[in-house]
Amino acid sequence: MVLHYNMVQYSNWMLRQHRQVCNKKVCVIDWFNIYCHLCVHVQVSTKMMDKYVREEPMIRGPNFLVRLRSHTVFENTAIKLFCTIEGFPMPIVKWYKDGVILDVSSGKYLVEAKGGIHSLEIPRCSTDDTAQYTAVAANSHGQASSQASVIVKSKSLCLIHIQYTKINITFVETFGPVFASEGGSATLSATMTLNPNLANLQPEAQWYRDDTRLFDSKWVKIDTGRGVTTLTLPNLYKDDEGLYTLRMVTKGGTAEHSAFVSVADGPPPVPAAPGAPMDIKIHDANRDYVIVSWKPPNTTTEGPILGYFVDKCEVGTENWTQCNDHPIKICKYPVSGLFEGHSYYFRVRAVNSHGISKPSRMSEPIAALDPTEFERLHAKKLGGKLDVVSYHDEVEADGKPPGVPSGMYASETDRTYVVLSWKAPAYSSTAPMWYYIEKCLLDSGAWQRVNTQVPIRSPRYAVFDLAEGKQYKFRVSSANIYGTSEPSEPTGPIETQELKGVPSAPGQVIATRETDNSVLIQWAPPKEPNNLIGYYIDQCVKGSKDWTSANHKPHRNTKFVVSGLTKGETYVFRVQAINELGLSDESQESAPLTVKAALTSPSAPYDVALLNCDGHSMVLNWKKPLRSGGAPIKEYYVDKRRSGTTMWREVHIPPLTERLYKVEDLKEGATYQFQVYAANLAGLGPASKHSADFTCEAWTMPEPGPGYDLSFCEVRDSSVVVEWQKPVYTGSGPITGYHVEYAKKGSSDWTTANETAVSHRFLKVRDYKTELTQSLKVSHGYSVTEIHGLKRLSVQFFWYRNSYNLKICVYFSVFEGAQEVSCVVDEKSGDIVLSFEACQMNEGSQFIWKKDYKEITDFSKGVVIKTEGSHSKLIFKNADKEDFGTYSVSVTNTEGVSSSYTISAEELAKMLALSYDIRHPIIPLKSELAYKILERGRMRFWLQAEEISSHVTYKFFANNKELSGMGHNVSTGIIEFIMDHFTEENEGTFTCQITDGGGKAQSSLVLIGDGEIDTEIIPDVKPDLGSGVCKLPIKLVRASAAELVINCTATGIQLQCHMKYYTSEMNITWYHGDKIMIGGTPAMATMEVIEPMEKDKGLYSIVITDPENSHKRTLDLSGDGQYLPSLAVSVLLPLFIDNRGKVVGGLPDVVTIMEKKTLSLTCTVCGDPKPQVSWLKNGAEVEPDDQYVVSLDQGKFASLTIKGVTMEDSGRYTMIVQNKYGGESVDIVVSVYRHGEKIPEAKPALTPKTIIPPKLPIEIPQPKTQAAPAPAPSAPSPAPPRAAPGRGVKSPTPTRRK
């Protein structure tokens, strides 16, 4: 039937068109042409039905499922009209008041459309709002309307005052901050109690996200009932992030609760791909195009975004098609080529160098319709409820061109397009009307038609493909089959937007304390906003570079509460601004801030008590507030008033700092009340509850007055410590002591805790049961103080005076797992340390250390208190034997956390002895002070310690006379002194004293009686008195030089010849080829062969000569000699040259790379055994983590990968390749630059490739048949044996002394 109806409509329209054009009767041929045309139309319609079979049943005109309902309200109240409409395409609704269209731009009326539910809200009604309101719904298939009357009555005319029932709402359980990821779900729930709970007056639960009301939908599910309301987000997207608020609304008021929901990016399709865009909006929907906009994702850890792809999907299908061939760089895109009357979904994907993101949440369905089409509908009443709906242009009229359009203006401008709107001319004809738009560059005068192929039927059109930053003028003409009107008046200059780039960086970022897990961030807006969309906030733990996003959806305001932080951790913050082009540079980092609760004013003091009265003054005391507000309490204020009056007067200016105060100038016999305020840095707290009535009468009783500040600490399962202060009023004599008694509550059976009175004001009561409620009383003198203690989780005190007795009710608590004080002697410093770990810490909590329950305030004797977090130490730097006693610690602003430790005199003596041993250590010696006779009458004294540092100091004494000139070697621990001329006069006692840090050592040596120490040597050659030269020839023997040995070096092999004796007359000559290095010391001659090759085989010789003799040592490296048949050439050289770790190639000298890219340094290495590879940055070893990835594949492919490089990654990187035969190190200079900056010119490192020698020297063994002396050691022996001195005997030394 639908197809038949469409055929009939189409045939009637064809007949009308034919009749108008030909103005004659329809002939048979015409009917035949119409029939053929209809057949073709039937075929096309059939195909269309096959293609859109799911959508076809949805095509229908508007229909009101729920119609408007009339209301009568009083002025200044709110009213909301609702209706529900169906139809396809989705009908467009307009609201009318008494037949005149409503001006919703005034802000007085709030119009909302959610799916098919439409509403009109008047937040504050007045009598002028009394009218008939009409909702007109229209689409391409017709229109429908619904009406309702609203009557607003004046309250002044109402004789009965309406008193709403006040319902008190108390939240029992609330929802906190939620941290989730895309694709997951979240549930926010709140439980409440109502008082009174009336079945017919239940509150309305309203949920908001960032002040936008939420309703049941595909993305949000709300369930409310029986004191519980729940909001469920079944499929999270970043669009769901925001501040969620629950408002329970009643006639008598509201109650609300808020918490932040954070939605992070889900796992990307490919690693390092960007997050999905969000907040898809549709603008300017028309017959064949829409404009889609969105917000960009944050890129804290990902690479920069290169562009976006926009996808569309027709309603009723699941086929998503990409709208743009190439990524677009801005967050707005006009989608054209839509079919009129069809509805579409849209979504967006982001692209960077790593890949494409997941798609955003799809938009709400939008119909491609002319937004002004329903305005052309014309309704004609036939009587009753029947209307005939037609278009204005279907009303018969004479054939003539339409009028001239007017009022053309640009409703939206962008970089490359302009959306134009104008007022259509009055038109009434059966012929269709369309429009022609012309454009002209300013001052050019050349008009060019824009729409040459597609006729425009709507008085709104988007002109695309304009030049950026240019000024245009536009005009429009209307046309039909009878002609074209004159052009309208040109618009004024309309300038397309010029691409100004991303916003500038935001200004100063300030972080302030909010709660113990959140921080308030505020910042200055950017100086160049450039169409600002919002901000992204990043957070980072101080000292790290691991930046994370605090929000995943752009935040519009310049303040933001960052939730989910770790209490006590220190953070820094930064902000980025975003617009449709992308993200700005980061702002400067905020100052580091430790997460703590914000300061608040303290709670009220309590228990104002009277301690003494002399007839004209009173001494008052009160308890400090239970909550300090996070800052120390600095001041107290006291007010007074006469009993029976209401006026309070402050009694002391300036404020007090102590909790004991004497109020002067009181009237004797008068009765007073007092109240106290406490103040801290945050301000003045509330007043305490006023005291009881105190009568100003002098106290004359002989008994002492009451004690005060009674408190409990160290509450354990079988013990508690009771403390109190001395009474202010002492009665007729001094107080001699105190007794403490306890009893079960309600019982008169008192047990004395201490049989002997204590003179101090504390006592540890033991062996009582905490599960039983106890009463305690403290007796002093003649008066009795009763204390009733009840085990609770809070501490409260209630004081009242009864005759001469004082009764005090106290609640205290027992802590599970309470820690105790420990006492140790520090193994390094020797300090005596008392340590305590608190099991509970609150904002503003402090550790109070006491000795014998008196606070320690004297720190002049080396007592130090150190506190870090929940750990506190009492340290004795200079403890003495008088420091024994009971040391206690308590933690303020907690529920009685405390502990103590008693140090007895015996234990203190042991700790002092241990402390002395630690502070006065003895340096252990490997060998005591020894001596050795050297040549030319010199004497070497030396000793060796187990270990010494570079800061060691020492003194050498000869017969109690200090001598200078000592030296030491840290690596060997040897300390030595050379005496240039030792004679009999030097005999005696020699002592060396060593000091290294806190350690000391001393060693002595006695040399007495041997006359051969100083023996004259007569040379064979007489001295030449003329020249002043005396020669003592020493004959060299064959054993003066050792056999040649081979050691590997970093650049080749080294031949070494150790010599036992050496003089300046000796001449050393090496024989073999070139490319050698001659060197050595007086104790060893060396020749080094650099990078030995095959041609370096052969015979190597060293010749040592003096004026009379010569001596030769030979080593055969030819492969045939008896010393090295094949080892030196076939084993030693290949091992060092071929098998050491090497860098084959692949590494550049210099690398320049843009910030946020990934850098990979890769090369090939070799060596046998497989070498080890390590990397250094500026000399420090690179620690592998998520950013730095070090790998060695198959033992030969080494790489260092740096992900997301930053400016801090610039520097010199060193790759070290090494095995037991040596290796190489290569330097690479990395230079990082920012996007848009000029590529820097980096210079390579000055150090070339460095060769690393073997870890251990490789020596060639010598033949056993060759008798040769053992080579001299390369380093002096740590403990050389003593040699008896003799005539003409010399000992070798490492260096020659002149």
From TrEMBL:
One of its GO terms (cellular component) is M band. Residues 276-371, 401-499, 505-598, 604-703, 706-803 form the Fibronectin type-III domain. GO terms for molecular function: structural molecule activity. One of its GO terms (biological process) is sarcomere organization. It holds the Pfam family fn3. Keywords: Immunoglobulin domain, Muscle protein, Repeat. Gene3D superfamilies: Immunoglobulins (2.60.40.10). Residues 1248-1269 have a biased composition (Low complexity). InterPro entries: FN3_dom (IPR003961), FN3_sf (IPR036116), Ig-like_dom (IPR007110), Ig-like_dom_sf (IPR036179), Ig-like_fold (IPR013783), Ig_I-set (IPR013098), Ig_sub (IPR003599), Ig_sub2 (IPR003598). Residues 1270-1283 have a biased composition (Pro residues). Residues 62-151, 816-904, 1019-1118, 1125-1231 form the Ig-like domain. This is Myomesin 2a. The lineage of its organism: Eukaryota, Metazoa, Chordata, Craniata, Vertebrata.
